[in-house]
Design brief:
2 domains, elongated, 106 residues, single chain
């Protein structure tokens, strides 16, 4: 009868074998389903759809940021006291989204 210490030592190896076996079986299942590394016919249509959605999203973000900056510039021209605060908040948010978050995730 194995002791508790022996089982504790063997547990990582058993877990690794189980994960490896599961991964190999799932790869075999994907190959059996026809996934062989070649794109399916008419996949260019799906790629074009994704590209169009990405372009639309880029346009929407650019337009929204442009409108926000135009409104803030107008507020600065008429002498609003809180416009500089909002301007720095918008600039800080954009830098956070475009620089800090991708750097942290990389």
């Amino acid at each position: 009868m194995p002791t508790r210490r022996t089982l504790t030592r063997l547990l990582p190896a058993i877990a690794l074998l189980g994960v490896t076996g599961t991964a190999l079986l799932s790869l075999a299942a994907l190959r059996g389903a026809g996934l062989n590394g070649k794109p399916p016919p008419n996949s260019a249509v799906i790629k074009k759809l994704i590209d169009d959605l990405t372009d639309n999203w880029t346009w929407l973000i650019g337009t929204g940021m442009g409108l926000v900056l135009i409104i803030l510039a107008g507020l600065l021209m008429v002498g609003s006291r809180t416009a500089p605060d909002w301007l720095f908040k918008v600039i800080g948010g954009v830098l956070l989204i475009l620089v800090v978050i991708p750097t942290a995730l990389a």
